[in-house]
Amino acid sequence: MSEGTHAVDASVVDIERVRWWMGEAGLGDGPFEDVSVLGGGTQNVLLRLRRNGREYVLRRPPPHKRPDSDRTIEREAAVLGALAGSAVPHPGLIAVCQDPSVIGAAFYLMEPVAGRNPCGPLPPGLSDDPGWQRVLGLSIVDGLIALSEVRPSEVGLADLGKPRGWLERQVSRWRGQLVGYGRAEHYEPGSLGSVDDIAHWLDTYRPADHGTGLIHGDFHLANMLVDDEGTLAAIVDWELSTQGDPLLDLGHLLATWPGEDNPAGVDLAVPLPWLPTVDELLAHYARRTTRGLADIHWFRVLACYRLAIILEGTYVRSMSGQAARETGIAAHERARALLDAARGLLRRGEN
C-alpha cells in the first residue's frame, strides 16, 4: 500500500484478505492506493478504499460482533441492492461477501457518496445559510416519502422481516428486549426505569393496521448525507430496515428532530436554527403524499419508546466492554431523554 494509507487493525479488517476477495469477485487486482477509517455510526466499521483510481466504502459489523451481526450486514446489502434504480437516495451497492472466514465477518462494498452529515462540522457558508437548512429538512422528507412508496414485493424484498402482525407486535417485542437486558452481566435491571405507562398507552390507543412497506427503522438527521445545495444525497445505516408501517420512520424523524424544545433531538456540531419546524415537516409530508397522518402522534410515541430501548442495548454492551464506555453512557442518557419525550407527548393528551 502507498504512503498515504492509514493503518487499519488487521484484527478488524485484514486489508490483504479484502484485496484477495475483490480479485476473486471480479473487482480487479493490485494494491490499494489508500485506506482510511471513516466516521459515522457508533457501532459498525467503515473504511474508504481506493484502488486503480476507483473508490469503495467497506462496511462490516463492530469488532465485538453480536450473534446476528453477519445476518444484519447481509440484510443491509440486500436492501441497498433492491433500491437500485429507485427514487430513494442511497449508497449504491457494489458487492457483498457473505463468507465470514474472509475477514471474520460478513461485509459489503458500496459506492462513496458525495455529501456530508448535517450533524457534523459544517463550513460557515452552510451553517449560517437559512435557505440551505430549509432545503435540507424538506429534502429529507422527500426522501422519506420516496422510501414509503417502495413496494418490497416488487423489488425482491418480499421475505424481509415479518410484516404480518408487525403493528400488533411492536409494544411487546421491544418491552421483551428491555426485559432481556436484565440478564446481561454487569447491567442493573431497571436502570432505564419502568416503561409500563408508555407501553400501556401504546396498547390502548394502537391504530388500525394500514399495511406495511419498506422502512429504514432508524430514520433521523444523523443518518443522512446531504450535498452543498442541501439536497438529500443518501440515507445511510440500514441495519434496522424491515417491513413495517412507513409512519414509524416519520415518527422517528420527528422524535429526534433537533430543536431547543426537544432534549431528545440529535446532537449537532453547529447550531442549525433555520431548520424547518416539526409542523413544517408534517405539512410538507402531507402536501406530497396521500398517506393519512391522523395517527402520527401515536407513531411518535412508539418511535421514542422503541429507539430508547434500542439505545439502551448499546449501554448494556458497553457495560461488558463490547462498546465504548462513553458511547454507552451517551446512549443511556439519550434513551432516558426519549422516554421523557414520550411522556411529554402523552401529557399532551392527543391520540
Poorly predicted tracts of residues: 1-6
Can you tell me the CATH topology of the largest domain? Aminoglycoside 3'-phosphotransferase, Chain: A, domain 2
CATH class of the largest domain: Alpha Beta
Tell me what portion of residues adopts beta-strand conformation: 5-15%
Average pLDDT metric = 93
Shape: globular
Q: How do the strands and helices of this protein lay out in sequence?
A:
Elements: H1 15-24, E1 34-37, E2 45-51, E3 54-60, H2 69-82, E4 93-97, E5 107-110, H3 124-127, H4 130-148, H5 166-181, H6 196-204, E6 213-215, E7 224-226, E8 232-235, E9 242-244, H7 247-255, H8 278-288, H9 296-319, H10 325-347
Antiparallel strand pairs: 1-2, 2-3, 3-5, 4-5, 6-9, 7-8
Helix pairs in contact: 4-8, 5-9, 7-9, 9-10
